[in-house]
Amino acid sequence: MQTSLSFSVTGSGPPLVILHGLFGSGTNWRRIADNLKHRWQVFTPDLPNHGKSPWVTNMSYPAQAQAVAQFIQQHALDQPVLLGHSMGGKTAMTVALTTQVKLRALVVADIAPVNYQHSHGPLVRALQQLDLTNLTNRQQADQALAGDIPDQTLRQFLLQNLELRNNALHWRLNLDAINTQIDSLSDFPEVMAPYDGPTLFVYGSRSNYIDATHTSTIKSLFPQSQMYAIANAGHWLHAEQPEAFLSALENFLSG
Length: 255
What we know:
The chain is of the alpha/beta class and 255 residues long.
């Protein structure tokens, strides 16, 4: 995947790159980046088919990892910390396991290097089926999606990807590509060798994305990893408990 990712950068110091999850963008991590900018130079790229980054046909984890590796090389980032959440966490792990990028440390937020049985396919199809031609704003889109996606918080998150261009609404997500490859995004690629650098797996205590059954797989691929649970947090731990998330991150990085 040869593509230049759109990104924002803030702060000064050693580089830290944050990778968002599926349906997200770098802007979702602005609050965390602002809290880290006094010690780190924080890069928040949009992954392919998200945000303002180019649309591509192949968004497998090896392909996304190559795009991130290329981003790190393009910006001459010397041994960055790589942090990824959900899909971005799987991408970050794939960077560490399969590319030549040298990392200072790896942080994986609420995801494991395993195949998940649940699928976000229904969400993608609900967005694809939304008729944008008769809508003029996000509020109308929110009302139209309420039947298929009853969770208002989830709808509002997804609708951040809807923008007005030339007096018409457009998705900033490549929904066709995401829908085609949604099953592979639930999976994790096979790798030949572990990553032995310092790694933190931080997860929400109320999330079902990481549990005890994943521990042996995590330790086999990331033998120097630590596990840390954020109390009273689900999958969106950085948004639900930002102070606790930042504390866990800073404690790990300072160590």
